[in-house]
Amino acid sequence: MQSFLRPIDKVIFVLLLYISGFSGFITDLFMGSSKTALYFLYDAMIFLLALTSISYIRSGLAYILFFLAACVVLNFSYNESSFISTLNGLREVIILPCLIIFYNKIFAEGNEETAREYIGILKKYAGFFLIAQIPVAYLQFAQHGPSDFVGGTLGDKGSGVLTLSVICLVYFMSHFKKHLLEIGLLYFCLLPLLLNETKVSFILIPLMFVFIYIKLRLKSVLLAFGAAAVFLFIFNTYYSSNSHSFGDNSMAGAFSADFLGEYLAGDIYSSNDIPRLTKIIVAWQLISEQANTFFFGIEYGVFKGGTVLGMSHFALTYQWLLAGTRPFLFILLIQGGLLFTIGTFWLIAYANNYFRHTNKFGIFLLLLFIITLFYNDVFRNQNFCAVYFLLVYYLNSPLYRTETLETS
User: Fold this and answer.
1) Residue 267 binned pLDDT confidence (cut-offs 50, 70, 90)
2) Which among 10, 294, 306, 343 is least surrounded, fewest beta carbons within 10 Å?
3) What is the C-alpha separation between 175 and 66, in angstroms, rounded?
4) 42-98, pLDDT tens digit by residue?
5) Which of 185, 179, 192, 197 shows the shortest CA–CA distance to 242?
6) pTM over 0.90
7) Are 194 and 241 spatial neighbours (Cβ–Cβ below 8 Å)?
8) Which residue, among 28, 41, 71, has the nearest Cα to 338 in the 3D structure?
9) Which of 8, 7, 13 is nearest to 390 (CA)?
10) Exposed (0-12), middle (13-18) or buried (19+): which is 221, by Cβ within 10 Å?
11) What is the distance, to the nearest Å, from the Cα of residue 408 to the centroid of all Cα atoms in its chain?
12) Which has the closest alpha carbon to 212: 194, 226, 233?
């Protein structure tokens, strides 16, 4: 049975990576803005991968899955959504545990050759993905300017996901590029981050260079900060935004006290898109009104519906809050309350092997997760989650430690 399932796993995984990574732009061109059918397809693929891997669930992961399932059942016992709406909403919260179930099998003890094969798949995908973003992002930039439309092959409204995906994959590929020309071409793939409006790139690009190059030697520290400073200067010189007004369109303007105060924590009447931290605060206030919603959330599916299924009463009433930019912590609190949020953190710790093998790459990916809690909902994106958690499992595996020793 195992020998039969393994090639099926591989085919499904490759299709998941490439279809979810490239079909968004094609859909924008030929099918309009609706991607409901595609999202359902991605979720189905991830669910199938988990089904083929159930036999590899061990007690540590089983406890977490049971805890999360209990949170969902208790939420369903009192929320006003229909069973179908709840199932529809659960699609976006089960992709994380489903991927972790699958990668638990790929990186199980004794499966080193399989793990190496999947990292090879990711390397090939990363090369295609990074190169493809440059012409696609430029076309989107030429048509729409520096905006959320510049999502590369991920499509319209994918700018935030594109930025974090490029950062992760450039860091990953830097592990294998040792010649100066290869390194230069790899860093040229950061160009799409200059073409969209994601201001978090001001932080992530220098941070990435510091983590890649910094070692406990003066020369390495100077090289790391020097590379970060150069790219920060380039980014600051060529960055522009047509969707926000902040002085001189520079880093100083984008990170001024006045702009950040309004951008992150302004009041609910200050703009059409309620600031990120304000949304988290309002979410905490909403779930705190009752004990059951505080611990188990309001309802699953409030961020879905309206295309095929109808929206719930809560979603219709609070559309002014739920629409627009949505930090991941905001989504977790609204849907699952305090306990599901804790369960998700527990799942992240499990995927990181409870940080037993801490390294620079692992710390960097953990920082990305923390940033997204307050920044955007990239962990609802199937492609990013598939890449991110494969990297997490890779860097916690003996394979990564062996390759690090060989290339150091």
Assistant:
1) low
2) 306
3) 37
4) 999 999 999 999 988 988 999 999 999 999 999 999 987 878 888 888 888 899 999
5) 197
6) no
7) no
8) 71
9) 13
10) middle
11) 29
12) 226
Tokens representing residue 60 in the block: 């540590």
Name the residue type at position 382: Q
Residue 129, C-beta contacts closer than 8 angstroms, at least 6 positions apart? 21, 22, 153, 165, 169
In the structure encoding, which two tokens stand for residue 108, read together? 């199980």
Count Cβ atoms below 10 Å from residue 305 Cβ, excluding itself: 17
Tokens 């306990």 sit on residue: 339
